[in-house]
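To: structure desk
From: M.T.
Subject: fold request, one chain
Message: Could you run this one when you get a chance? Sequence is below, nothing fancy, just the single chain.
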Amino acid sequence: MIKITFPDGAVREYQPGTSSMDIAKSISEGLARKVLAAEIDGEIWDASRPLDKDAAIRFLTWDDKGGKSTFWHSSAHLLAEAIEAIFPGTKFGIGPAIDNGFYYDLDLGGAALGEEDLAKIEKKMKELAAQKNEYKRQEVAKADAIQYFTEKADPYKIELLQDLEDGKITFYTQGAFTDLCRGPHIPNTGFIKAVKLTNIAGAYWRGDEKNKMLTRIYGVTYPSQKELDEYLALLEEAKKRDHRKLGKELELFTFSEKVGAGLPMWLPKGAMLRQRLQDFLQKAQIESGYLPVITPHIGNINLYKTSGHYEKYGADSFQSIKTPHEGEEFFLKPMNCPHHCEIYKSSPRSYKDLPLRLAEFGTVYRYEQSGELHGLTRVRGFTQDDAHLFCRPEQVLEEFKKVIDLVMYVFSSLNFENFTAQISLRDKVNREKYIGSEENWQIAENSIIAAAAEKGLSTVIEYGEAAFYGPKLDFMVKDALGRSWQLGTIQVDYNLPERFELEYVDADNTRKRPVMIHRAPFGSMERFVAVLLEHCAGNFPAWLAPEQVKVLPISDKYSEYAHEVAKMLKAADLRASVDDRNEKIGKKIRDTELMKVPYMLVVGEQEMTGNKVAVRKHGEGDKGVMDTVEFVAMLREIVQEQTAGTKK
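Reply: Done. C-alpha cells follow.
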C-alpha cells in the first residue's frame, strides 16, 4: 500500500496505481467533479496519472492558480486540434497557458487569418470540447518521437525534441490530435464549456528575431458561459483603463522608435507624478533610517560575474560594452545590489553599524524580447525603488517586519487594499538553479514565514518562485478590476554577502558575515505607475495628481483674479494652473474633466467680488461656492489625510 498525505495532515492508504481522481472519488463524487489536476509533492500532475509511491497530495480546481493554468494549457491543445481540422498541414510551435488564457504559435504556410476565421475556430473548439475526449499521456522514446513528427512534417516539434532528454519525453493525445507536451492536463475536454479567441499577433519562433514569424492566436476559456461573459465585460473595462491609452491622453509618457523600443520617456506631467511618488517614499525611508546612495548605470563585467547576475541574466541583458583598453568590458547593470555590496565593502564595518540601510532609485537594463514589451509593464530600462539592508543574523526578523510596515504604508496611501503576500520559496525538487547552502536557505525561508505570520498577513506559498540567491515575500495586489499584479517584494539573502566576502566585526572581535535584505515597495517606478493608472483609471488621489487644481475664469475679465487664486494655491504647496483660453466655460470644464484634474475652481463676478471660488470635483460635479482661504485649507487637509496611511 502507498501512504497519501492530505493538506490537513491526514494520511490514508491506497493501492499502488491509484490515481488522484480515484482518491478524489473515494472522498466524494462532488469533489471529483471539480478536480482538474493534482499537486503531488509540489509538482502538478494529471488527475488520471497513477501514483506508485508515498506522496503528499493537494487537489486543484478552477479556484486554484494551478487548476486554471492546467485548464488553459489543455485549451491550447484543443485550439490546436481545431486548427488542424480546419487548416490541415499547419505546423505547430508552442501553446502555453498565460496569466489570463493561453496562446498557440502556428505556421499556417503563409495563410492569413481574419475575424471570420476566429469565429469558425471557436465553433470547432466547442464542438470538439463537447465530445469529452480524454487527455491521454504517453511516454515516448526520443527516436520514436522524432520519427512521428518527421512523418508529420512538423519541424518545430523536431527542433524542440533535440533539447529533450531521452526517457523524459511525453505525448498527449485528445481526440484526433497528438502533441509533444510535458503536461499536465485536465481529465477531458468536456470541462471546457465556453471559448473566446481574443487576438491574432505575430511572434518569432522561440522569441528570436532571426527566426520565422509565426501566427500567434490568443484565447481564453471558462467552465461556464456566465463566467466567460463576466470576464469579457471586465476586458472591455480594462481597455478603457489601459495605461498606454491613459498615459497618452493624460500626457504622462511616450515612446520613440528613434530612442529605442522599451525605453519610456516621461513627459512633464508624468515626471511630476513620478517625482511625487519618489519624494513620498524617500521621506518615509529617511524617517526609517535609510541612507541614500547613487551608483553608476554600468559596471565592470567582473562585478556581475562575482554576484552571479552575469550567469543568470547575461542572455537577457544588453551586450557588454568594450572600451579602448584591450580586454576591458562593462555591462549595463541589470540589478543594483552588486553596487550596494561594494559600497558596504568600502569601509570597515562593526556590529554597531548594523543594520545599514542603503536606498537608491536606481535605473537598470534588461534586453526583453520585442514581442514581450508592453507599455510600462515590460520595458528594457526601468527604475527600481531599491534598498539593501545589511544586518546581523539576529536582526533579520525585526528588519523584515519593518519593511513589511513600509510596504503597508505605501499600499494604504494609494488605496491598494486587496492583496496577498506570496511566500516565494525554492523548487522542492530542482535545486540546481539556486546558489548557496541548504542551511542558509532554510534559515532565510523560516525568517520570511515567521515575519509574515507575526504581521498577520494573508499568505500563500509558491514553490519554485524564489530568486536564485534567496527566498522572497512578493505582494500580489488586486486592482479595481480584480486583476492580480506583483508589486512590492522583500528578499532575504545569505549568498551575495558570501560571494562579495562582506564582513563586520562582532562584539567578541570576530569577523562575521552580514545578511542582506533586498526590498522594493514599488517594484519598479514604471510598472507601479502603469498598475496605479489602471487601478484608479487615471483618477489619482489629490496628493499624487500631477495637477491638483485647475482655475477656470468665466471670461478674460476674471483672468487676473484666477491667477491670484492659483498663486495662493501654489503658496500653500498645492499644484494649480489657470485655463485662460478664449473658450466657453462649458468647454473648459469638459476638457478639465477629460484630464482628470481632481478639482476645478470656476471664477466670475460673484467669486471675484467676495474672494470666493465655485468648486467642482472631478466625477462629482458642483460642490458649491467656498471662501478661497477655506478651500485651500480643506484641500491641504485632504492631501495630508491621504498620505497619512498606516504609517509606522
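Reply (cont.): The chain has a mean pLDDT of 92. Let me know if you need anything else for the meeting.
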